[in-house]
Please model this.
Amino acid sequence: MQVKIRHHGIDYCAEAQIIKNLLWVHHNGKTFSVEAQVQGRKSRKAGVVATSDKIIAPMPGRITKILVVPDEKIEKGQAVLVMEAMKMEYTLKAEIAGKIATIHGQVGEQVVLGKILAHIEATKS
Amino acid sequence: MKKFKRIAIANRGEVAVRIIRACEEMGIETVLLHSEVDIKSRAYRLATKTICIGPAETAKSYLNIQANIEGALAGGAEAVHPGFGFLSENAEFAEACENAGLVFIGPSAKTIRLLGDKVHCKELAKRAGLPLIPGYEGEAQDLSSLVAEVEAIGLPVIVKAAAGGGGRGMKLIRDLKEARNLIESAQREALSAFGSPKVFLEKYLERAKHIEFQIFGDSTGQVKHFYDRECSVQRRHQKIIEEATSPSLTEELRRRMGEAAIAIAQLGNYRGAGTVEFLLQDGDFYLLEVNTRLQVEHPVTELVMGVDLVKAQILTAQGEYVFRSQQVRIPQGHSIECRIYAENPYLGGVPSTGLLGKVFWPEGPGRRYEFGFEEGDEITPFYDPMIAKVIVWDETRQRTIQKMIRVLKDSLVFGVHTNIPYLIEILGHPQFVNGTMTTRFIETNFAEPIIAPILSEIDKEIIKKAIQQSHGARLASGRSSEATSPWQTYWRGV
Model:
């Protein structure tokens, strides 16, 4: 849909579209999207997951390699597992130093975006 | 001389559309050989006939030689165009086509074996006296031998898939401690992308430019080149922006490199379209590889040379493409191509999949759009994330850059994120503008995800108005998803 507004006496025109729960806008050479929801549905809380002690799938894809075992001590920045999506490999690294508490998933498994793949128990400092 | 009535296309996405368009103009029917998930695509809608050859998984569909041959025969095709990627550089496929009575649109299986396999190609080039990068191309593929070779060549070293291309199965080793993991990873990617885990090693040139020559062998066996392209703007060895001709070559270098390109193509009895890739550093050039197929970036050559490489390929396969002596082949003006990837540039390029919303490409002189998907189509996670190519032409390089920036700003893709904002930043970078970028340009200047723009008051009012106009909807958080996305923090760990 075309969206026309007047701001401080100047007219602006943008293109917009709602797809699923995102509103997409193209205006002045930029495209951006904001979360928008059909009324009545419960709003999903954004940004509630603290990621530092977890390894989370950043995209839908397949686990191709798990480089650690439970209870293994790991360093910050150490590679924990490898995923493949769109024919490219992505190495997921630990954000904190600690010990692998649990691993959720196995090699070859197709995982969804946002799935927690491993928990890390932080080293007490 | 045999005119084809129907050609099978063993590919998908924008290149399938490119081939269909060429066939339509030549009065040839098409059979699209597609996977189960690729029915929501332009190629599927445009082809004369469609045949499903297997499930989404590439090994069972686009890389399955038997399924492609059976599909082409069932569809009544006389020839097969493999596009690029998938089976396009697979000698067994070329052979299987010929055995089944289908014409493979490309060089012969023998040429593909000779030039397409990077290891064989290097042996040939060595004998022909072409400059090569120091490396290891041996048969020993076990980890300890390969790691020892990495040490012998000296860091940094790049590990590559022997049967590959397009950045898959390529890893850069900077630290000997990482060598084992990176080699293993390259072998896995090579196996999954090309069906062979074989890799080779090469010394990594730190400030090289990627220059390639478009070569072509006509039906009579003459080989010529259609000048050069520069593709130094690469991320993880995947090209992002390409241009013709290169801003980095002197006339003398261009002549010498062109001669070297023709020399190796002639050694392989080249027929049809191909590309000879070089690295250029400090005035010295080294042969990188020969791609025995049409290249993703072929449109920039078409625009500056006034040729149609896909039609030339088809005519060559029909036995009727002959270079004319009066053909004057001097590049005119400048052309740039940007690859549009479905990925989130604010999250370091993580793939973005889903239902495509409105798509708009702004028409105008010297603008060309190659795209495989439209509104209502689905971008799936199974394949390469390139959804479109934007190609522009203008008289000078500076004006071509300006045109490209404007065109990208006016292009619109809803539903999935694209790398368009990232491309705009690259095009405006001083090193790109003055043409001095090397293959390390991206890793040096664009290693971090680009910063999401802050919404202006005007943007916020537009959002408010858009929500009002769409009645039932309301904002979940009122903030830009780029700024608040829960996935942003996830990307940090990658």
